[in-house]
Design goal:
alpha+beta; 434 Repressor (Amino-terminal Domain); 5 helices; 55% helix; globular
């Protein structure tokens, strides 16, 4: 989770994977997103996010952007 003066961005991928009993490795293979990128998303260690990655994850997980990313004031 990144913390800025304007708020926080929370990545919810780790919880989605846990809820669906899906491994990071399986998601990497099925989505075409690099494993290290998925690992950083699960840990919330990103300062930038490629929209192509978001699209791939949403398509693979059959979810919306709001399911993956949350904004907190």
């Amino acid at each position: 989770m990144q913390n800025y003066e304007c708020g926080k961005i929370k990545f919810k991928l780790a919880q989605i994977l846990k809820d669906r009993n899906l491994s990071k490795n399986k998601l990497s293979i099925t989505s075409g997103v690099r494993f290290d990128t998925i690992l950083r998303l699960c840990k919330g260690n990103l300062t930038r996010l490629d929209l192509d990655i978001v699209c791939r994850l949403c398509k693979t997980l059959d979810c919306s952007i709001e399911d993956l990313i949350e904004y907190e004031k």
